[in-house]
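Action item from last meeting closed. Structure (391 res):
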């Protein structure tokens, strides 16, 4: 590993600035996007914005250097997960530096990478670029990579074809070439309300949902115990998870409706459609017949929520070799969390994931990134500068 000096004041100050924008996924990210737009536009960057349907959120795609095909994309998402209900020792949207760490929501996931790119953009511009350098900042990654798809569609319509992409999710600056795919669903269970004293005359939607969730748990155990496995991943098997469950109004009322959200995080090559069909078949054969014997309209509705494709970049591709060169780390990793990298890769833009911080800090109270990691990220970005700048 190449040694990296302490991060510059410019990079740390940019982290402080970006963390101060409270871009929780449910809220707008426009203040941050407009700041980044103005910062890059004054350097001569060509700017493209794409919006969500309500125009409360936007993606930014900015290009420094020649207006030619190719170039490398530095990509990151601007949204962060909520802090509500978490016990923080400080204001999560004001960076606190302590014991070699920068604390704040988004320091690890993943504003520090974006900050290094934006802080060094003036130096890229001043030195001149031999090839385009693109900045891609997206919205709603934490909700299922909802924003980046519009950004990529816009690039396709405009005929903009970058040659490669680096996504700066936290990997401890180790190049990651593969991650699992994810498909998430919302299941709504319809029952029949009666007084709880006459429960056999109703259809209890909560109990039916609980049976279904129990089967999802059995599916999870089956994959844990029997695979298939890929031991190069940090979690070597496909996982099944239920994360939200709502139903019922009072104990003396048989609940007529219940809702739960579940997901499959699957290995590349494992088919999430087959997992969903397994679940549907179990529900249809083992739960719904008893429900419909009491009330013909009772049953399950499953709605698709979001998808992150699996990433599987070949270890011998040029972007992986570049990531090795820039990071000074010859290893490669495969991770269980999803990123927008797979969307770029699916658009025939070879992509690798490499960024500062640890995923172990993501989504937690007192989230932090170490100054050492920020320094490594700055060194990575400066080595890219040496490679693609004229002077």
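Sequence:
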């Amino acid at each position: 590993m190449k040694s990296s000096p302490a991060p510059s004041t410019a990079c740390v100050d940019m982290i402080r600035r970006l963390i101060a924008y409270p871009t929780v996924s449910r809220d707008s990210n426009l203040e941050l996007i407009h700041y980044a737009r103005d910062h890059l536009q004054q350097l001569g960057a060509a700017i493209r914005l794409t919006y969500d349907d309500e125009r409360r959120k936007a993606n930014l795609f900015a290009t420094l250097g020649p207006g030619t095909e190719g170039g490398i994309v530095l990509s990151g998402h601007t949204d962060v997960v909520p802090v509500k209900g978490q016990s923080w020792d400080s204001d999560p949207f004001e960076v606190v530096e302590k014991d070699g760490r920068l604390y704040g929501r988004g320091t690890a996931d993943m504003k520090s990478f974006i900050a290094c790119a934006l802080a060094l953009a003036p130096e890229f511009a001043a030195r001149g670029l031999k090839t385009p350098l693109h900045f891609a900042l997206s919205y709603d990654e934490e909700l299922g990579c909802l924003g980046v798809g519009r950004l990529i569609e816009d690039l396709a319509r405009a005929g903009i074809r970058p040659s490669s992409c680096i996504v700066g999710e936290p990997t401890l600056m180790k190049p990651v070439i593969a991650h699992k795919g994810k498909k998430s669903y919302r299941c709504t269970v319809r029952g029949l309300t009666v007084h709880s004293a006459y429960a056999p005359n109703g259809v209890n939607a909560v109990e039916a949902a609980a049976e279904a969730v129990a089967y999802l748990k059995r599916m999870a155990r089956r994959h844990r115990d029997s695979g298939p496995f890929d031991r190069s991943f940090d979690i070597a098997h496909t996982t099944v998870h239920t994360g939200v469950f709502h139903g019922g109004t009072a104990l003396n009322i048989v609940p007529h409706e219940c809702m739960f959200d579940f997901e499959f995080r699957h290995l590349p090559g494992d088919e999430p459609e087959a997992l969903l069909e397994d679940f549907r078949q179990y529900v249809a054969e083992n739960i719904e017949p008893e429900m419909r014997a009491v009330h013909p309209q009772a049953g399950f509705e499953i709605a698709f929520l979001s998808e992150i494709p699996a990433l599987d970049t070949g270890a011998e591709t040029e972007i992986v070799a570049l990531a090795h060169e820039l990071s000074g780390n010859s290893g490669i990793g495969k991770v269980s969390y999803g990123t927008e990298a797979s969307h770029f890769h699916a658009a025939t833009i070879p992509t690798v994931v490499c960024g500062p911080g640890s995923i172990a800090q993501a989504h937690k109270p007192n989230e932090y990134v170490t100054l050492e990691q920020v320094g490594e990220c700055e060194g990575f970005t400066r080595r890219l500068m040496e490679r693609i700048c004229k002077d």
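Note appended to the action item: The chain has a mean pLDDT of 96.
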